[in-house]
Amino acid sequence: MKFTLYPFAAFLTVMLISPVSNAKDELNGIPLKICVEESEFPPFNYFSRIDGRKSHNSDGYDIQLLYRLFTPPRWQLHIIALPWPRCMLEVELGKIDAAMSASANPERRRKFLLSRSYYHLTPGVVFLKQRFPKGLKFNSLTELTRIGTVCGIRGFNYHHFGWNNSLPLSLSKDLPLIPELLQRGRCDFFLARLEVFSGTLKLMKRNPQDFGLATQAVPHTRPEPFYMLVSRQSPHKMALLEEFNSGVTLLEKSGELQLLLQAFTDH
């Protein structure tokens, strides 16, 4: 998978907007705050690079989709990057209206309103090829816990992977640390959505061979749907859900949704 750092030039230039916005950028419309993962979730949301250095501008499929759907003068859109656990908490409390690129589990369905799904990812495992040169043979993640330490990202949901929440899961704070944790022996296996892991390495301008890594899909799983999570406390929750769901459906029917995704990925 490959994604560009300056896609869809015809779209509005998207900048990460802090909670305190410049007054001249304020528009008379419904104020809407949406958070994304601060440590990046490429190609869906990430900080664009200028001469190889991370900028303060947020880009990606999520960002461009939001600016396509929630336009002025009806909406006054603010996109905020936060650590994922804080993003979830502030949406739950109603301080932020919604979060992008979220998977589902029973707890999240109780706490939030879910949009329709707008893309799918592959649940997978990352490991050192040198240690397992013939790949992994397993039917469930429980089997991997008998071989070594299984790691994941703090605050991420692994329900769709078939992970048993009663089992301990070593936690890391962000995806770029995966290679180092595997090489240092802190983890033997790392749970990752394969498309996002590939996107993370490309953002780092590295490939799996640089680290001696291999990836494998979790058996007996289907592609995992991703959603916008909407706060049950948001005063705009129903308008927000209706606008997002109808807008995504129209873009999907016209083929524009796939074109937007392809602007950030190369299959």
UniProtKB/TrEMBL annotation:
Keywords: Signal. It comes from the Bacteria. Residues 1-23 form the signal peptide. Residues 33-264 form the Solute-binding protein family 3/N-terminal domain. Coiled coil: none annotated. InterPro entries: Solute-binding_3/MltF_N (IPR001638). Belongs to the bacterial solute-binding protein 3 family. This is Transporter substrate-binding domain-containing protein.
